[in-house]
């Protein structure tokens, strides 16, 4: 007897549920990759993630910002920062005029650890490489849309994506291969060059971000 997939009530099959199942499997593999890379550096994944977060932030970040970006509690972030400081991979200083606030910055030794960890790519990088070019591009844009939603509902801090950058001009050009413009470098670029974490990013004001997003997603 033929039983269709839709007749298996014990197995929820909404597309939303199945996508989350898929993301969960990918998250499992990413955690495994992170453990391998961190272990090779003599760190744990949270410590390595803190170094990666601070790598391109010359002015450092406060403990609260670090915790929010990593999705961990402030006490947990504080413990990891203390461990990294003992290893000489981070340094702490006062943040601006508020002498009680602590600013955390990566040291040259910390940068060296990041560079060594980067040399070993894991299975997730291989699985992305296995996608066709157009599939990579579609996935990148889908991720940007999901991340943007998570930002909007305050689930994560604003990321340094083109979609929130004051230099971003989506679909400013008629060239289908390079429709966007970055006013920071004054150059056209394509969908697959859209940034998730750009060092030159400067957050646009909310009205600019909303207008930019409208153009981007309708493009
Ligand atoms: S500065 Fe970076 S984030 Fe901003 S538009 Fe250019 S590439 Fe995108």
List keywords for this structure.
8 helices, Arc Repressor Mutant, subunit A, 2 domains, 3-stranded antiparallel sheet, binds iron/sulfur cluster, about 220 residues, mainly alpha, about 50% helix
Structural summary, described in words:
By secondary structure, the chain is mainly alpha-helical. The protein has 2 domains: 15-117, Arc Repressor Mutant, subunit A; 133-218, no CATH class. Helices cover 50% and strands 11% of the residues. It is built from 8 helices and 6 strands, in the order ααβααββαααβββα. The chain has helices at residues 15-40, 45-55, 63-70, 74-86, 108-118, 123-129, 133-152, 206-218, and strands at 61-62, 90-95, 98-106, 168-169, 180-182, 187-189. The strands form 2 sheets. It has a 3-stranded antiparallel β-sheet. Strands 4-5-6 form a 3-stranded antiparallel β-sheet, with no helix packed on it. A hairpin with a 2-residue loop joins strand 2 (90-95) and strand 3 (98-106). The chain binds iron/sulfur cluster (SF4). Iron/sulfur cluster (SF4) binds next to loops.
């Amino acid at each position: 007897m033929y039983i269709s997939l839709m007749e298996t009530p014990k197995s929820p099959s909404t597309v939303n549920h199945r996508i989350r199942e898929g993301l969960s499997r990918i998250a499992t593999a990413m955690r495994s990759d992170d453990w391998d890379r961190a272990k090779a550096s003599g760190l744990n994944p949270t410590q390595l993630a803190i170094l990666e977060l601070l790598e391109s932030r010359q002015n450092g970040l406060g403990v609260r910002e670090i915790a929010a970006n990593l999705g961990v509690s402030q006490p947990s972030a504080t413990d990891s920062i203390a461990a990294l400081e003992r290893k000489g991979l981070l340094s702490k200083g006062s943040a601006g005029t508020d002498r009680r606030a602590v600013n955390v910055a990566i040291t040259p030794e910390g940068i060296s650890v990041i560079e060594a960890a980067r040399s070993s790519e894991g299975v997730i990088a291989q699985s992305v490489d296995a996608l066709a070019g157009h599939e990579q591009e579609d996935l990148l844009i889908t991720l940007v849309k999901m991340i943007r939603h998570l930002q909007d509902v305050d689930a994560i801090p604003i990321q340094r994506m083109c979609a929130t950058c004051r230099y971003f001009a989506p679909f400013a050009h008629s060239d289908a291969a390079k429709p966007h413009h970055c006013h920071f470098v004054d150059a056209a670029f394509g969908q697959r060059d859209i940034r998730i974490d750009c060092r030159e990013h400067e957050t646009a004001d909310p009205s600019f971000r909303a207008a930019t997003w409208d153009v981007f997603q309708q493009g």
